[in-house]
Write a structure and sequence with these properties.
Blueprint: E1 2-5, E2 8-15, E3 21-26, H1 33-47, E4 53-58, H2 76-90, E5 96-101, H3 103-115, E6 119-125, E7 145-146, H4 148-153, H5 156-163, E8 168-169, H6 171-187, H7 190-197, H8 206-212, E9 219-224, E10 245-250, H9 257-260, H10 262-280
Parallel strand pairs: 3-4, 3-5, 5-6, 6-9, 7-8, 9-10
Antiparallel strand pairs: 1-2, 2-4
Helix pairs in contact: 1-6, 1-10, 2-3, 3-8
């Protein structure tokens, strides 16, 4: 489906009943909606809530099938405006939950800061929480588990792409990386992404907004112990600002946590979905 937004024909897909409780799914920088489908649909099935929630997946402007976005939308603020407009288009005026991975986690925090109690719950997967990218507290990249025989079967280009942030490199992880993450890299608009880098910080002060009004909805923050992109230390400051949050740091997991620890991640995400369902009634 396509949402006609000024400057962008936004590609989106829906799962679940139209009258279900909405959840807006926000993928990471340079990725596309397949990344969020791949991690959230197994969790929805594990929680047994397929008919409880309306899942709203989109390709953010400049990404995936929305890659043709005008450069006027190439800022984090404009991307968030667009995602929230789509959410309101799909479920006008209705409160909704947010799930965000990496850059999408930063967008999710922006939605909470802007809309407060209109956001019913939040899941942050390896979220970026520091808008000064040079100030991030990251971890050394450590390839802990590898299948050298399988890696030797990949082309040099595929192997290089796969290992760029890998903590676990084997065939099952590659299968998901190659179908859920790598295609987004190929389809994203490089000029758009470069322009976003120049207008990255949100105009809303997320930390100040949460300090003034802690987020009381069911929350989940999941980080990788070996995340070389965003780390896990910066995210710890969210704990007192989210009194109903589960916070987990998973070992043998980096920025592709949901691919590298799928069972643990799915269990945590399914628990969050059950808590969200109980909270909203």
């Amino acid at each position: 489906m396509t949402f006609d937004y000024p400057g962008c024909a936004v590609h989106y897909e829906l799962e679940g009943p139209a009258d279900g409780a909405p959840i807006l799914m926000l993928h990471g920088f340079g990725c596309e909606l397949a990344l969020m489908r791949g991690c959230m649909e197994p969790a929805v099935r594990a929680a047994g809530v397929q008919d409880r929630f309306l899942r709203v997946y989109l390709d953010l402007p400049g990404h995936g099938q929305s890659a043709g976005a005008d450069l006027s939308l190439a800022s984090t603020d404009a991307i968030l405006d667009c995602a929230l407009a789509l959410q309101n288009h799909v479920a006008p005026g209705r409160p909704f939950a947010v799930v965000g991975e990496s850059f999408g986690g930063y967008l999710a925090l922006g939605a909470i800061a802007r809309l407060g109690e209109h956001v019913t719950g939040a899941q942050l997967l390896c979220p970026l929480t520091v808008d000064d990218l040079a100030a991030r507290q990251t971890e050394p990249l450590a390839l802990i588990r590898r299948d050298d025989a399988f890696l030797a079967s990949l082309s040099a280009q595929d192997r290089q792409s796969f290992l760029q942030l890998a903590v676990r490199a084997d065939e099952p992880t590659w299968r998901r990386f190659s179908t859920e993450e790598a295609p987004g890299f190929a389809r994203a608009n490089p000029a758009f992404l470069t322009a976003v880098d120049e207008r990255y910080p949100l105009s809303v002060d997320v930390d100040a907004a949460l300090a003034a009004r802690p987020f009381a909805g069911p929350a989940l923050v999941v980080c990788g112990r070996q995340d070389a992109m965003v780390g896990y230390r910066d995210q710890l400051r969210l704990l007192p600002l989210m009194p109903c949050a589960t916070f987990a740091v998973l070992d043998v997991a980096g920025h592709n946590l949901q691919l590298e620890q799928p069972e643990l991640y799915t269990a945590l995400a399914a628990d969050w979905l059950r808590r969200l369902g109980a909270a909203i009634g």
